[in-house]
Amino acid sequence: MENQGLKELYIDELKDLYSAENQLVKALPKLAKGSASQELRAGFEEHLEQTKGHVERLEQIFEMLGESPKGKKCAGMEGLVEEGSEVMKEDLEGAVLDAALIGAAQRVEHYEIAAYGTARALAETLGESEHVSLLEATLAEEKETDEKLTDLAKQINQQAVSGDRVQPERDQAQGKKRARRIA
Q1: Which of 25, 54, 154, 182 has the highest CB neighbour number within 10 Å of its CB?
Q2: What pLDDT shows up at residue 165?
């Protein structure tokens, strides 16, 4: 009977992840649009495609389990997404805005790394080796994204501290004056 309780916990964790990933599918385009740096924007767009793959992997696992992925809302991710939205409403621009967006994105990645690590450990304990492989693939991608964000943060944070301004494309599109480098 204890094993049945662990399986229920595992399914609950997977439903939480499924909700989290679907929230990110909706949030990542907004982060990409809000980014001043073309490189950061491209990173968010690339991670959006990966996230869609994460959803598909979770759907595979649910299919193997004969369970529905629906029925749970991930409150943790909801809070993290809200924090990211708040960052975009603040009076930040250029490299400083991008530094704040990277911080929000890394909090999301760390949450996902923890959640996928937990789900993978439960799958392993339950003897679900196919699930372990799928979850490990996603976990590796989440860790890689976090590393990319860390590397990009070094560059963007340096721009922010030196006063470099990245001209957001949305400003260019609205015909605003081109920002010049402030040094």
Answers
A1: 54
A2: 52
